[in-house]
Amino acid sequence: MVDPKVNISLCVQGGNIRVNGWDRDEVRVFINKGSPVGFKVMQKNRQTEKPVWIMVVAALDQEKGTGVSEECISGDEIEIDAPRSAAVNIKSQESRTVIDSIGKVSVKNVVGDIILNNIERGVQAVTYEGDVIVEKSSGAMTLQSITGNIAVSGASPSEIGDIFRAKTNNGAITLQMIDHRQLEVNTNSGLIKFTGEILNNGQYIFGTQNGSVVMFIPENSSCRISAVYGYGTFTSEIPLQKIERNPSAQTKSLTALMGAGGAVLNFTTFNGSINIRKQ
């Protein structure tokens, strides 16, 4: 038995990882064609004596003795069942990581996709080579891919002030139905596409070095727009007021008002267009 909000840490050399939340205060690990597995209790609750922090580790071969030989595990398929309120921390060399219905998640892959669904209290996901996909999750979010795409649908804060951050060096970022009021979205090379509402008092920052930004928002959206764009254009299907332009030969800029101006919308692209379209 473990604490319902137990923190589970593991290091993975390679293999497909799947973590599932379940309605038991227990942690179960199954590895197909891989290293024997054990648990290392790092900390217990002083009142209940239940583990609040455990590490999943590679156990010694039974013929060689007991105990732990090394921290990193490996296998073709690594499946973990954990309490739905648990926090899961994974560091992996090469794996496809899928996590469903867990309290909080931190994943760092060198190579491999990260797919997250129904995470309740926050996400940190980094992969150097692969895609990051998040659905129906809440909390503060930091998502990063060096070479890969980022796609998020149905994200919301779990506390006031939770920030949504997404960044990729080479890939597209696609966002749909994001209810955070503060977004910082950047890509060095790739398209940024946002579909959803612009929330009152929200702050939205979208930047790309080499790519376009496309926004699909309701016609009654209210925001103050600031755009800097180099070799591209700025267009809006929604009427704008108080438009001021600086048509410099290399770097053009624009400020404008949409509706009453309830939010702040900042765009930057050096080689691409900025398009606002009706949802």
Question: What would your notes on this structure say?
Answer:
- Helix content is 0%, strand content 66%.
- It has 279 residues and is mainly β.
- Among the domains are: 1-102, no CATH class; 105-190.
- It has a 26-stranded mixed beta sheet that branches.
- Strand 3 and strand 4 form a beta hairpin.
- The chain is elongated.
- 35% of the residues are buried.
- Residues 61-69 have low confidence and may be disordered.
Compact summary:
With 279 residues, this protein is an all-beta fold.
- The general outline is elongated
Would you report the number of β strands? 26
Major beta sheet, specifics?
26 strands, mixed
Mean pLDDT: 93
Write the layout of secondary structure elements.
Layout: E1 7-22, E2 28-34, E3 37-44, E4 51-59, E5 68-70, E6 72-83, E7 87-94, E8 97-100, E9 104-111, E10 114-117, E11 123-129, E12 132-138, E13 141-147, E14 150-156, E15 164-170, E16 173-178, E17 182-189, E18 192-195, E19 203-210, E20 213-217, E21 223-229, E22 234-236, E23 241-247, E24 252-258, E25 263-271, E26 274-278
Parallel strand pairs: 1-4, 1-6, 1-7, 1-8, 7-9, 8-10, 9-11, 10-12, 11-13, 12-14, 13-15, 14-16, 15-17, 16-18, 17-19, 18-20, 19-25, 20-26, 21-25, 22-26
Antiparallel strand pairs: 2-6, 3-4, 4-5, 21-24, 23-24
Features:
26 strands, 279 residues, mainly beta, 26-stranded mixed beta sheet
